[in-house]
């Protein structure tokens, strides 16, 4: 057996007994174990039990004589991967081993994939170090440990769904499903069926029973995006589902119990909608047990250089791409009505259009950099004898700092540059 498997390309270590085999197992890493079931001293069943205690995922193949198949079946019940009866040929053994290793590889890949997904949506997936974003992450980290409902508000493109995923993947429900529903994107005549499911014959086209999003999210998190666009009558049904922890499919049938945590999000002024009677007050308070506001990008401009670097790395994985400081200044000065999503699109565009390893102002969208007051509108008394550009820049920086009482962050924003760039130029000109 050792010769046959080695000839097939496997690295094999043989042991003369169960005890010897376990000693090898303790000192080395193996992908599979093959053991006879009947041996002097420790039996194959004992070997199986000890290996299962140490590594439940490792496949163990049992070799048995025809007369002891009942023991092999019992070994399968105890967790053996498969058994092969003696006498067997080489191909039969190899096929069984190949199947075991293929299953192990798939399981390992699934574990790695789950770890990757969980890592991708940890809170460090939200890029930023500004005071506002740190406050958001601090609250989100604390609420993740609970099952409390969360209402995330903020403009489109600020990262509300990313934050919701971060809360989910840092909660005890991380192994459960994360189901997202865009309430504004589903036609009104289908939204109830999408949320709560339907039974066969409930309406034209309902040819079979269908699970709703609440059922699909059972044991996990349901993310209701753009909840402010939901009809009043459906708001009441969602409130009932949250309170009763059960849903009724469209068309009748017995109530279906669900265990779901709801995270909702909206870009609307939800408190104004409540006052105007466009959003139910009871569901507002039920959803906003914890309310988190995602700040717009223009209110956390210190984060823009970090986001720019992140997106450059994302879209240029095989290249060492840099960005010109002037381009960073332009990106920082812009107001970003589309927030992080718009910034990401701009960097992706620049990455596609770049001519070399440096992204310059020329690769950025033309609309960027046009929001500041035009220099042409500033009255400058230029002397006939000429003027020092460095003196002009130094004087402008001093005036910007005086205007904002020495606040470097506000002065940098006023000048349309980053704070590190401002500090660099202050050092350059000896401005204290």
Kindly state the number of beta strands.
Answer: 12
The poorly predicted ranges are none
Q: Please, what is the CATH homologous superfamily of the largest domain?
A: P-loop containing nucleotide triphosphate hydrolases
Q: If strands are numbered along the chain, what order do they take across the biggest sheet?
A: 5-6-9-4-10
List the helices and strands and how they pair.
Elements: H1 2-7, H2 18-27, E1 33-36, H3 44-54, E2 60-65, H4 69-77, E3 82-86, H5 90-120, H6 131-144, E4 150-153, H7 160-169, E5 178-182, H8 188-196, H9 213-216, E6 221-225, H10 232-244, E7 246-247, E8 256-257, E9 261-266, H11 270-275, H12 281-287, E10 290-293, H13 304-315, E11 322-323, H14 325-333, H15 339-353, E12 358-359, H16 389-403, H17 408-415, H18 419-429
Parallel strand pairs: 1-2, 2-3, 4-9, 4-10, 5-6, 6-9, 11-12
Antiparallel strand pairs: 7-8
Helix pairs in contact: 2-3, 6-7, 13-15, 16-17, 17-18
Give an overview in words.
It is a single chain. 46% of the residues lie in helices and 11% in strands. It has four domains: 2-117, Rossmann fold; 123-295, P-loop containing nucleotide triphosphate hydrolases (Rossmann fold, 3-Layer(aba) Sandwich), CATH 3.40.50.300; 298-363, Helicase, Ruva Protein, domain 3; 379-429, Homeodomain-like (Arc Repressor Mutant, subunit A, Orthogonal Bundle), CATH 1.10.10. The protein is an alpha/beta fold and 432 residues long. It has a five-stranded parallel β-sheet. The protein has a three-stranded parallel β-sheet with strand order 1-2-3, with helices on both faces. The protein has 18 helices and twelve strands.
